[in-house]
Specification:
This protein has about 425 residues and is an alpha/beta fold. It folds into three domains: about 70 residues, Udp-n-acetylmuramoylalanyl-d-glutamate--2,6- Diaminopimelate Ligase, Chain: A, domain 1, CATH 3.40.1390; about 210 residues, Mur-like, catalytic domain (UDP-N-acetylmuramoyl-L-alanine:D-glutamate ligase, 3-Layer(aba) Sandwich), CATH 3.40.1190.10; about 120 residues, Mur ligase, C-terminal domain (Protein-Tyrosine Phosphatase, Chain A, Alpha-Beta Complex). The chain has 15 helices and 21 strands. The strands form four sheets. The chain has a nine-stranded mixed beta sheet with strand order 8-9-7-10-11-12-13-14-15, with helices on both faces. The protein has a six-stranded mixed beta sheet with strand order 16-17-21-18-19-20. β14 and β15 form a beta hairpin. α3 crosses α5, α11 packs antiparallel against α12 and α13 packs parallel to α14. The protein starts with a helix and ends in a 16-residue tail after the last strand.
């Protein structure tokens, strides 16, 4: 059946899992979740003009376009693997606790300056998004860049089975999804599944050599390119941190200085690895520099926004103790006496959650701020003398009441906290 479905895919290489977005000529996969069942929409998909409809419950319909399979999600993944096996191009997989999407975007910008490059769209980095990304790789693609997110062990291992990465990057192993991974050792084991695959399949890894734990984790990988601030194949350091990050490159590249549109020196490793990947794939130095300098972050990631007389650092796409600490410390270094910290709760920390939220409060108390707003999550359970709000709407109302002028704000929190809501306080 996989071969028959693949022949349809070759004629109609567009996959859809939502009939509301389905166009005629696309293949519809009827996926199931806790609150939806795509099988219920098989008839609608056929009416819309789907080239094929893949279901795992009998639709009681007669149509040659229907493929009845034991598991629609597994068939999606199997189809992705079948397609992947037809491709002989490099597949670069990226995972990590923090910075993987920014790293993916920077590397895509660098590689696409020279090669036809396919990459993960937005945040399609899960068990559905990864196969969809693979199936979006066209025959003329020269390099594919695949982002892999994970919140428990064996997840990255599963993605590698049908991505078959030839190259890989783990950005870091931080305090993210501790509940699912079972602590920091679990995080390293789970992220390290990418290294395990590369080790077993003659792969190449780009290793952040500043992080000692990678020295051990990467042992045995056949091909290693190291990057970092010192003692690595490709090195760079922070030249200037504000308002935007400027990086001075040192060894391993003819790129010298890079003036980015990113906020925060915690983005330094993301910049250096983009240079390293570009150099490895022989992208000309001037194109590497231009690609990184022209990249402007979107989607609430390390964005610097001007709202009237106020300056806002919006980094509210996600948050965990490692990224939160980096953002606060970076904000503390900024030269401004009128600074407001607005942070939301951090999710999926399990039994460590209250302790980690208390640690953030303790960190905040080491610096002087004009004011601090804590919102939601386990900030409600810790000791502090700051403002606390149950949700972002309440925090927004407080900011509205203050009519801030000439202030600099850090807005950060887990995705579910919707901390970007605070921007509405500055919309006049």
């Amino acid at each position: 059946m996989i071969e028959a479905l693949y022949q349809v895919y070759l004629q109609h290489p567009f996959i859809q899992t939502d009939t509301r977005k389905l166009s005629a000529g696309e293949i519809f996969f009827a996926l199931k979740g806790p609150h939806f069942n795509g099988n219920s929409f098989a008839a609608k998909a056929l009416e819309t003009g789907a080239a094929a409809v893949v279901v795992d419950e009998h639709p009681h319909l007669q149509d040659d376009r229907i493929f009845i399979v034991p598991d629609a999600l597994k068939m999606l993944q199997d189809l992705a693997l079948h397609h992947r096996k037809q491709l002989t191009i490099p597949f670069l997989a990226i995972t990590g606790s923090n910075g993987k999407t920014t790293t993916k975007e920077l590397i895509h910008a660098v590689l696409s300056s020279t090669y036809k490059t396919s990459t993960t769209t937005g945040n399609l980095n899960n068990h559905i998004g990864v196969p969809l990304t693979i199936l979006a790789v066209t025959p003329d693609t020269e390099i594919a860049v695949i982002e892999m997110g994970a919140n428990h062990q064996k997840e990255i291992e599963g993605y590698c089975r049908y991505t078959l990465p030839t190259h890989g990057i783990i950005t870091n192993c931080g305090k993210a999804h501790l509940e699912g991974f079972g602590g920091m050792e679990g995080v390293r084991k789970g992220k390290g599944e990418l290294y395990d695959f590369l080790r077993a399949h003659n792969g190449t890894a780009f290793i952040m050599w500043d992080y000692d734990y990678f020295h051990t984790m990467s042992k045995g990988i056949p091909h290693i390119i190291t990057y970092g601030t010192k003692d690595a194949d490709i090195t760079g350091t922070v030249l200037q941190g504000e308002p935007f990050l400027e990086v001075q490159m040192h060894s391993g590249t003819n790129v010298k200085k890079i003036s980015t549109q990113l906020v925060g020196d915690y983005n330094l490793p993301n910049i250096i690895v983009a240079v390293a990947v570009g150099a490895y794939f022989k992208v000309p130095p001037d194109k590497i520099m231009q690609a990184i300098e022209q990249y402007a972050p979107t989607n609430s990631r390390s964005q610097l926004l001007k709202k009237g007389t106020n300056t806002i650092i919006l980094d509210a796409y996600n948050a965990n103790p490692t990224s939160m600490k980096a953002a606060i410390e970076n904000f503390a270094r900024m030269q401004n006496d009128n600074k407001y910290v607005c942070i939301g709760g951090m999710m999926e920390l399990g039994e460590d959650s209250q302790m980690e939220h208390q640690a953030m409060v303790d960190l905040l108390e080491q610096f002087t701020w004009k004011d601090v707003l804590l919102t939601g999550g386990d900030f409600s359970k810790v000791r502090h003398h700051y403002h606390y709000f149950d949700d972002a709407m309440q925090a927004k109302e407080w900011l509205l009441s203050k009519s801030l002028q000439d202030a600099t704000l850090l807005i950060k929190g887990s995705r579910s906290m919707k901390m970007e809501t605070l921007l509405q306080a500055f919309d006049k």
